[in-house]
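re: that chain from earlier
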Amino acid sequence: MGVQPPNFSWVLPGRLAGLALPRLPAHYQFLLDQGVRHLVSLTERRPPHSDSCPSLTLHRLRIPDFCSPGPEQIDRFLKIVDEANARGEERGLAAGDAIAEIRRLRPGSIETYEQEKAVFQFYQRRK
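^ sequence. v structure.
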């Protein structure tokens, strides 16, 4: 039986969730129990015990703490999500609205000016 990882919440119920770094094998089991099949890690180091659940595919983007992702990392993340949700519907928001919505759903997210700037730059690239 799994144990909910710290700060776990659904951004799009059943399709996209956010969470703090899973640290226990039971955290990975919880993700599987929730139907999660892909885990995208933004940390520089491999998440502990990530090999304890071979049914969960780990994708690593390696972004230094409190830094913003580069355009290529954002594109890679979107490709992972798109492939995992190939039959899902796309929902688009303006950059400021997207930041506000993520902060509403996951307080403490998008912490720095550089991270906000990365969201706005991504939005401009996609227009």
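The mean pLDDT is 89.
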